[in-house]
Amino acid sequence: MGGWEGRYPALREVTPASAETVSTSRDIERYAALFASRTKVMKSSAMRDLMAVTARPEVISLAGGLPDTSTFPPDTFAAVAQRIARESCAKALQYGPTEGFERTKECIREVMAAEDMDPDSDDIIVTTGGQQAIDLITKTLVDPGDPVICEGPTYPGAVPVFCSYEADTHQVEMDAEGMRVDALERLLDRLEADGRRPKFIYSVPSFQNPAGVTLSVERRRRLVEIARRREVLVIEDNPYGLLRYEGETLPPLYQLDGGDYVIYLGTFSKILSPGIRLGWCVAPPPVMEKIVLGKQAADLCTSTLTQYFVSEYFAEGRWREYIDSLVGIYRSRRDAMLDALERYFPPQAEWTQPTGGLFVWATLPTYIETADLLAKALRDNVAFVPGSAAYADGRGSSSMRLNFSGSNEDEIREGIKRIGKVVWEQVALYETITAEHPLPQREPDTAEMEQAADVLPLHRRRERRE
Ligand SMILES: Cc1ncc(COP(=O)(O)O)c(C=O)c1O
To answer: Which pairs with CB-CB distance under 8 Å and at least 24 residues apart come from 79-84?
Structure first.
């Protein structure tokens, strides 16, 4: 069954009827024979599903990855819109080139220059959000059954893309320094021994969604060296690089590689607005040629209107100031979340200490299923993303992604308090049951050890943050 009711059956009873999109059995019979076989492996996006469930105003949602768009100055919006109306109305309402306008690409080059990258304008394509860039790159490179590699956990929005193109997705464990590059090498050796070559390694190196961890400089260098030596493409997805709350800027993989083996994805969603739906991809010319063909088939061109919005906004020269203001706001919210976790979560839980981005990843004892926990939390009007959404194979079931950008500090404290309450209840229940029926003492078996590898080995203590 697709949709949220298939993924999280426990949510059915806490969901208002209006949010349901259940097909009647007659509808299913009528259309089932027509569906392409790939629809069998298509997955719904966990965040999209949850947006329907969390739309009720009384719900504190720590589920979405929503930037706080209420921080964007309405006066700036009005001034930019008026300039477009006055000076470029007809052009802004017209179709544009598939690759995007040169003026938009200049803005993209400015954003990338802020992280010391200098791509050629011809290597850039403007896309309908970073999400479309992930889709186009997968459409361009992946045949059914092809191996692709990503982090475990990975960006939950990438999972449905890899599933749609029927990729054979392999996820490499992470620790507090991001993807375990030694584990990656072992996986690459195993695939090579089977005569298989991954089409790409997808990574979110900075302030990863969902884990909130950042790939260390040493591992960045090693990953690029591996990609070059083994001639494997790396897709670097970097929506959060400029949202750093402390510490030194780290070199993006694209900068370390120079753009031969690293394809770069960026977006304006988290540094300006997701509503404008503008992202981009930087790729070498032969790959770009195919991506352009894929985009022509998908949507002809990215919205011209919002491309005009971005170039007029950048012409004002204050886009860095707005990011600085976001950094201040999100840093305080991150701190509020980490403090609340210390206060309200039981000692059996652990979580990451993000130095940027929008997310904390928390892991509970393995006997707690976070999909079930979500149903209980929703009864208390609070939501998070269950960890299984970040895996293609159903792992991560005792973890959760918590967002701190979309709610204010009071809401974050209250939300974590409510989640903490249901977690404590589960822990107490388990302890009561196991005290009544003590489990035999024994060494964990291999399957249990492997399941433990789901869980990032993390430290809950504040002083562990860099
Ligand atoms: C890692 C990552 N990639 C891509 C996206 C897609 O963003 P958009 O399509 O809004 O640019 C997101 C959004 O949360 C993300 O976290």
So the answer is: 79/316, 80/309, 80/312, 80/313, 80/316, 81/309, 83/312, 84/305, 84/308, 84/309, 84/312
DSSP code string of 45-63: -HHHHHHHHTTSTT-EE-S
Q: 354-401: per-residue pLDDT in tens?
A: 999 999 999 999 999 999 999 999 999 999 999 999 999 889 999 999
Q: Do β-strands 124-127 and 279-282 pair in parallel, antiparallel, or remain unpaired?
A: antiparallel
Instruction: Specify whether the CB–CB gap between 16 and 34 falls below 8 A.
Output: no
Query: The tokens of 229 are what?
Result: 């030596």
**Is any atom of ligand 1 closer than 6 Å to the C-beta of 173?**
no
Q: Is the CB of 130 under 6 A from ligand 1?
A: yes
Placement of tokens 């509808």 in the chain: 27
3 CA distance to ligand 1 middle (Å): 20
Residues in the chain: 466
Q: Does the CB atom of residue 386 touch ligand 1 within 6 A? A: no
Does 198 contact ligand 1 (Cβ within 6 A)? no
Instruction: Give the pair of three-digit tokens for residue 323.
Output: 């990011």
What digits encode the pLDDT tens for the residues 105-136? 999 999 999 999 999 999 999 999 999 999 99
pTM for the whole structure = 0.89
* Cβ(204) – ligand 1 distance below 6 Å: yes
Which of 151, 161, 237, 267 is the pocket-test mutation for ligand 1 (most atoms within 8 Å of CB)? 267
